[in-house]
Specification:
There is one protein chain. By secondary structure, the chain is an alpha+beta fold. Strands 1, 2, 6, 7, 8, 9 and 20 form a seven-stranded mixed sheet that branches. The protein has a six-stranded antiparallel sheet with strand order 14-15-16-17-13-18, with no helix packed on it. Strand 16 (about 295-300) and strand 17 (about 305-310) form a beta hairpin. Helix 2 (about 55-65) runs parallel beside helix 11 (about 445-455), helix 3 (about 70-75) packs across helix 4 (about 100-115) and helix 6 runs antiparallel to helix 8. It is globular, with a radius of gyration of 26 Å. The mean pLDDT is about 95. The chain binds flavin-adenine dinucleotide (FAD). Flavin-adenine dinucleotide (FAD) binds near residues 38, 156, 200 and 369. It comes from Aliiglaciecola litoralis. Pfam families: GIDA, GIDA_C_1st, SAM_GIDA_C. This is tRNA uridine 5-carboxymethylaminomethyl modification enzyme MnmG.
Length: about 625
């Protein structure tokens, strides 16, 4: 039976990618259906209840700058906020929030329920309707058919999901949820390259059985950070602390003694796990010389007795999990509420995707989130937003939204995936971006909000707040540029004690802020030079724009230079072995990957700038 209404966009899956995808296309005014297994688990955090961190926090701010939900929900659900790398430069500073799992779900559900053009339906999607290599709809478990112009699949770890605890395993999408078997089989029959990955999660502990006196307390930051550009500190719920403890030699011995029953070390699990979020058995194996690993003891929520011990993800048998947990300081009497487990699932090679996240083989079908080989809520949310927006743009017959590597971490993420693919769960790091100085958390709105507004992703309230902030920055910068201080000026007397070298000639206020010992807030606190602008985010921008102007200009020059060759085409039948000077390794990599452009060639790991110069010279010679 066909459902009576036809949709423009159907999003399958209500996780982090799915909710952002559905909200994005609905915000853009197209008729959207969000079809998910269980409406109660919309926005469910499958693993640790935390959002943000280095690289990931940048993605959250970008989702927010494009009108997405993740940062808004985090402000409503965060119970411990921190700014990481706060003593370092603004490019690598990142916000992280411990979230109340249930408040987060409630916040996402609330945003979804208030979004016009968005319809919810609870059922499993078991099949796709494909005609002449174009997707036309989906079929649910009970045989109900939904027609649509485009479909976005965001089914996470559910495709052919197998859960492992020790040598036991069973089918599951994540603990407590069914896997997607029928859909996995359908997708495997399509011409996409498919492989298996794995991820894992630690046992959850009963807070009442832990001894916090033996652990180190880790309170949140003061002043309290806010994640969304539209957020306020007053949005945050009550704040509580996290704690830190460590594994020890005994823990490691217990783990080693259980490796013969570990699904990872006995070859039962074939999928590759996340290198940067390894299981504890992986850690003691890879870092054999370390006799201790840190564990962050994170509360799951304000009204929950569950604790997430971040750092001891494991799929060892339950008896080993029990002993290893109890060997840890503060966990001596710990009760395990939920055992840790690993999950293996299908993912599709993201090189089979266009930069819009539309699949290369089936028109109108988009993939976003963990299905593309990534790991993490933030990576999923960012892809979801882009896929949802591009599905809507295709329906509207408008140009796609593709963000370049120098414009956004989302651009880096999608470019990395679609040009290089991934062999292990991909997570974002600031080191993956070559233009870090431009891609800061604090300027995500500068980079993206106007783009979002242009295509309908950004609502009037956000747009008005953004413009107000821009105007305030502009006015203040003009004032600082055009206000001059003479050494004999009365206010200079108050300023000189704060300077390493007192003023010897006239300087603009902007020049003075550039001095390393001076800040915008220090300067504007002096009578006659202030007051500082009220909007704290705008004040921060004024300071960063002035202090880093030189570096930022240099990076922009570099971008302009590299863009010159970004789209230079490389013939698909190019014989790289004929280029003298290229190493065998470079020839092999180029021959295997066959990049379409010089831009893509530069991003293949191991392809050096020198190799690119040789390629350019060769292309020039060929005319
Ligand atoms: P999900 O959040 O998994 O959402 C998928 C949604 O699709 C769900 O709502 C599901 O019900 C729905 N769905 C699935 N199939 C169908 C269907 N056929 N029809 C209808 N609906 C369907 N990330 C980290 O960053 N670090 C970690 O250490 C980490 N560990 C993890 C451990 C485990 C055990 C799991 C399960 C995940 C872990 N993650 C970790 C990953 C993180 O949870 C995901 O990256 C993130 O949730 C992916 O978002 P997503 O939207 O792609 O998928």
């Amino acid at each position: 039976m066909f459902y009576q209404q036809e949709f423009d966009v159907i999003v399958v899956g209500g996780g982090h990618a799915g909710t952002e995808a559905a909200l994005a296309s609905a915000r853009m005014g197209v008729n959207t259906l969000l079809l998910t297994h269980n409406v109660e688990t919309l926005g469910q955090m499958s693993c640790n209840p935390a959002i943000g961190g280095i690289g990931k926090g940048h993605l959250v701010k970008e989702i927010d700058a494009l009108g997405g939900a993740m940062a808004l929900a985090t402000d409503k659900a965060g119970i411990q906020f921190r700014t990481l790398n706060s003593s370092k430069g603004p490019a690598v500073r990142a916000t992280r929030a411990q979230a109340d799992r249930s408040l987060y779900r409630t916040a996402i559900r609330n945003i979804i329920e208030h979004q016009p053009n968005l319809t919810l339906f609870q059922q499993s999607c078991d099949d796709l309707i494909v005609e002449n290599d174009r997707v036309c709809g989906v079929v649910t478990q009970m045989g109900l058919k939904f027609k649509a112009k485009t479909v976005v699949l965001t089914v996470g770890t559910f495709l052919g999901g197998t859960i492992h605890i020790g040598m036991e395993n069973y089918k599951g999408g994540r603990a407590g949820d069914p896997p997607s078997i029928a859909l996995a089989e359908r997708l495997r029959a399509l011409p996409f390259r498919v492989d298996r990955l794995k991820t894992g999660t630690p046992a959850r502990l009963d807070s009442r059985t832990l001894n916090y006196d033996l652990m180190q307390e880790q309170p949140g930051d003061t002043p309290l950070p806010v994640v969304s550009f539209m957020g306020k500190v007053e949005d945050h719920p009550r704040q509580i602390s996290c704690y830190i403890t460590h594994t020890n030699e005994r823990t490691h011995d217990i783990i080693r003694s259980g490796l013969d029953r570990s699904p990872m070390y006995t070859g039962v699990i074939e999928g590759v796990g996340p290198r940067y979020c390894p299981s504890i058995e992986d850690k003691i194996n890879r870092f054999a010389d370390k006799n201790s690993h840190q564990i962050f003891v994170e509360p799951e929520g304000l009204n929950s007795i569950e604790i997430y011990p971040n750092g001891i993800s494991t799929s060892l048998p339950f008896d080993v999990q029990f002993d290893l947990v109890r060997s840890i300081k503060g966990f001596e009497n710990a009760h395990i509420i939920r055992p840790g487990y690993a999950i293996e699932y299908d993912f599709f090679d993201p090189r089979d995707l266009k930069q819009t996240l539309e699949t290369k083989f089936i028109e109108g079908l988009f993939f976003a989130g963990q299905i593309n080989g990534t790991t993490g809520y933030e990576e999923a949310g960012a892809q979801g937003l882009l896929a949802g927006a591009n599905a809507a743009l295709q329906v509207q017959q408008k140009d796609p939204l593709v963000l370049r590597r120098d414009e956004a971490y989302v651009g880096v993420l999608i470019d990395d995936l679609s040009s290089m693919g991934t062999k292990e769960p991909y997570r974002m790091f600031t080191s993956r971006a070559e233009y870090r100085l431009l891609l800061r958390e604090d300027n995500a709105d500068f980079r993206l909000t106007a783009k979002g507004r242009e295509i309908g992703l950004v609502d009037d309230a956000r747009w008005a707040a953004f413009n107000q902030k821009m105007d305030a920055i502009e006015l203040e910068r003009q004032r600082l540029k055009s206000t001059w201080v003479h050494p004999k000026h009365a206010a200079a007397e108050k300023l000189n004690p704060l300077l390493k070298n007192p003023l010897s000639r006239e300087h603009s206020l902007e020049d003075i802020i550039r001095r390393p010992e001076m800040t915008y807030l220090k300067l504007t606190s002096i009578d006659g030079f202030g007051p500082a602008i009220e909007n704290a985010q705008a004040a921060e921008q004024v300071e960063i724009q002035i202090k880093y102007a030189g570096y930022i200009e240099r990076q922009k020059d570099e971008i302009a230079k590299s863009l010159r060759h970004e789209n230079t085409l490389l013939p698909m039948d190019f014989d790289y072995s004929t280029i003298s000077g290229l190493s065998n390794e470079v020839v092999a990599k180029l021959t295997e990957t066959r990049p379409e452009t010089i831009g893509k060639a530069t991003r293949i790991s191991g392809i050096t700038p020198a190799a690119i110069s040789l390629l350019l010279v060769h292309l020039k010679k060929q005319g």
